[in-house]
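Quick one - inputs below.
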Amino acid sequence: MTKIIDPYGSELVSDYGKIVKDFGLEIFNKNIFPNPNAIMRRGVVFAGRDMQIIAKCIKEKKPFYALTGIMPTNQEIHLGTKLVVENLKFFQQLGAKTYILVADLEAQAARGVSLEEGRKRALNFHIPAYIALGLDPKKTIFYFQSENKEVMHFAYEAAKKITLNEFKAIYGSADPGRIMSAVTQVGDILYPQFKERMPGIIPVGIDQDPHIRLTRDVVSRMKSKKFFSPGSIYHKYTPSLDGSIKMSKSKPESCITIPEDEKSVKKKIMRALSGGRTTLEEHRRLGAEVEKCMVFELLKQHLVEDDKELDKIYEEYKSGRMSAGEIKQLASEKMMVFMKDFNKKLEKAKKQVDKLNFVEF
Amino acid sequence: MTKIIDPYGSELVSDYGKIVKDFGLEIFNKNIFPNPNAIMRRGVVFAGRDMQIIAKCIKEKKPFYALTGIMPTNQEIHLGTKLVVENLKFFQQLGAKTYILVADLEAQAARGVSLEEGRKRALNFHIPAYIALGLDPKKTIFYFQSENKEVMHFAYEAAKKITLNEFKAIYGSADPGRIMSAVTQVGDILYPQFKERMPGIIPVGIDQDPHIRLTRDVVSRMKSKKFFSPGSIYHKYTPSLDGSIKMSKSKPESCITIPEDEKSVKKKIMRALSGGRTTLEEHRRLGAEVEKCMVFELLKQHLVEDDKELDKIYEEYKSGRMSAGEIKQLASEKMMVFMKDFNKKLEKAKKQVDKLNFVEF
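Output:
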């Protein structure tokens, strides 16, 4: 089995190894890009496609882009989304032309959010939230999917390049709505290249890989258009607080959203699956089962930036000197600080919304 | 078997009867609308959907619409397309709000005609050609599919309302490109109702019925939007000059295009399958087999407006007094007159293009 580099171990490693193999991904090498961010250093980022091409662009200061989409549904974002923003921010700081598209068409079709409402939510929450998470608004280009005729036109052409069976092979199923969404996303992913062909990298959770594969297939069938196949970089899921593979809103008691109020978050963390032993005595003697601990996972993925600090927590916990109660207390406090900081930055970012670089169509 | 009213008979009747039954169409009653046009009076128009609702609108002077699309590919139109224009014109004269959309997106995706080129062809040929065929440009609203964001947005919603299996049941197959085109056409068909709900009628060849059915299915699943299901009216194909069911560009020697030069048309008509007997003597004695004669079909569908004149030709030919050579000569002459008239009107219409009512988006 393919080995995934994860310095702190995780019971989920084996599944990600299978994904890498099944999807034909390249394993992420934490030295490929200069100054890797925390999730890259810690094996949360585990794979990608065409990363070498992006590394070359960075090294030679050649143009490349990074892109992500916002689905303006609820007035909150999933904690896992923070990982996408971390990577987007990372490439932005390394010079990527950075694009954020608001998938308002998709939100309307999939969730019944009207275009007007989607627009409002994106401007009043989602975009400011991404800025609050560290994206530089001055260096980011935004657009609304519903306004981008070029993308819609391209979606039409892309659709003609794929067969139903290929679609099914990539997505598992092929309902008309899904097909429309997918070919539009192909257009979105390539949009930064419409005016200028250049490599790009799309930071995504592994569940979004079908869009990357579909786009790469379409590009390979439009050779004369000379698009660069989009590169990608994948992070693991933020696991559910109950220990299952992916944090999900379908289990709200095990899912943290941004923002979320102090009391609710604290309660969830206190009830989370930890690495603590049955008794404190046993815990002191055997040490924590860190690889099973969802609280440590929170610290690793989201709450501790400094590696030395994380190492220290790991040592204390693994050795049994730090109890499950204590690590939960620590994570709660750090989460409080994060939420407070986020809310402050969010309010500030909301005031900048009228100065954003929206593409005019 | 369902009986189709066709006063001049046709070997193709039985097939159309089957279509009516299989698709659940209403048989066209030539007295349903006031002052039926020639193809309605002669059984070329043979079926429809929700025609009673349109008849009521006409009678009560309530708003309704008629709509067709132009695919701006070649710089010529198929003779069969004239039948669509006849019916569109008919409803326009009875007060229908009349829409013509230029399916430039479809032309790009299906035939590789760029949007710019499609636009040029539509303005320089297709739209003027429709005007030359009798459409009133002052009473017609035009738009380009590629510019109509509302239609594209609606296509997205429509796609979510249908399953892949339903799509396959309607269209026989379901490639992604076909799905995109079809759901966009659903948007086009309903577009006149976006601002004002009203009944509409779509004149089409029977091969276009899947779009009508799909649109009606989508409407029935968006009850809260209160769209009227589109009505439709179907004409038979203009048969190929060699006697097969549909005139097609794949057999150019049996297909007449508008415009086409005198020499070429004459040659094709002279070689067409006629109702003439093996010898002139036999022809005089037995009379022509009119129901097998593609030349008479041309006169009936396209070249003779006056019923009495057509009746007379029918009598002369059927009785054997008019020979196959003579009916071919007659059809050739009438076709020459038609083409000359068309070309004259086309040149005139080209000059009106900058005054058309294009929807501004």
